[in-house]
Amino acid sequence: MQNHSTFGLLVSLILVSSTMGQDTAQTMRVSHHIVVPLQQKILSGVVSGDPSKPGAEYVLRIPNFAGQIVFPHWHPQDEHITVVKGTWYVGAGEIFDRKALRKLTVGDYVLNPSKMVHFASSETDTIIQVHGIGPFQQINAERDQTISGWVISKEGILPDPRAKDCFRFKLNDRVRSERGVGVIADGHHAEKSRLTQYTIEPDDGKTFDALEQKLTPVPQSDISGGPLSGTWKGVLHSLPQGEFPSTLVIQQ
User: Fold this and answer.
1) In 3D, which of 106, 101, 70 has the Cα closest to residue 86?
2) CATH number of the domain enclosing 163
3) Is residue 153 located within the same domain as residue 195?
């Protein structure tokens, strides 16, 4: 009887162990990885987490156009950056200074400590992956006047009709640069750094940024009139988080 009891206990333990193993295996099957391919377009830039929530972990992907300059700014929390595409440069200081830039290529990591003023530049189309603890905020260290009539500063984003006076070119002006010919899609002027850069939409669709002194005007060709009704398919290139397919339908 004792041997049978021992055998029965062993069988019971084996069954329980087997059941637990099945439960664990079932749990593992339910759990899954969240894979976000690099080429996936994310308009918000959020890969995971909640960058607006205090104390929450987050991961962002932020694209930069070729030639783009990120004006001096700082963050309330530490900013952890890994370059996942392209060539990117970062430096520290209140005024943008190319001599202070350090080169980062794919796989390189940089830590920008909280409240340290820093700036950046992109040599090519670049994507940086940013992770940290929320809230994620970018505070401009100098006034950033936009070609569309706004000023971005540490006080926030406010309308400023005089901002347009900082720019030699206007929206939709056709210009030539070392990267090609295109139209002005956006523009920013940094007061202390004395930099004016434009976002250019070229004919081939590969958006880039260029400084004002490197642009020359291109005369607009005559455009003949015609009906407005129609459908146009294309890609939006000037969104802050990358390219996005779009369809425009106009019915006259």
Assistant:
1) 106
2) 2.30.30
3) yes
* Helix segments in the chain, DSSP class H: 2-30
The CATH number given to whatever domain includes residue 77 is 2.60.120.10
Distance CA 6, CA 4 (A): 5
With residue 72 as reference, give the H or E element that holds it: strand 69-74
Give buried/exposed letters for 156-182 (b at 16+ CB in 10 A, else e).
Answer: eeeebeebbebbebeeebebbbebeeb
pLDDT tens-digit map of 159-204? 988 888 999 999 999 999 999 999 999 999 999 999 999 999 998 7
CA distance 49 to 125: 25
From residue 182, give the alpha-carbon distance in Å to each of 11, 137, 199: 78, 32, 9
Model-level pTM? Answer: 0.75
What pairing do the DSSP bridges indicate for beta strands 79-85 and 109-112? antiparallel
Per-residue model confidence as pLDDT tens digits over 81-109: 999 999 999 999 999 999 999 999 999 99
Greatest Cα pair distance in the chain: 105
In contact, 199 and 186? CB cutoff 8 Å: yes
Residue carrying structure tokens 């009887």: 1
Question: Would you state the structure tokens that stand for residue 148, as one six-digit string?
Answer: 């569309």
Residue 201 lies in domain: 144-219+230-246
Cα distances (angstroms) measured from residue 252 to each of 226, 228, 232, 233? 11, 6, 14, 18
Exposure b/e, 40-51, CB count within 10 A at least 16 = b: eeeeebbbebeb
How far the first Cα of the chain sits from its last, in Å, is 95
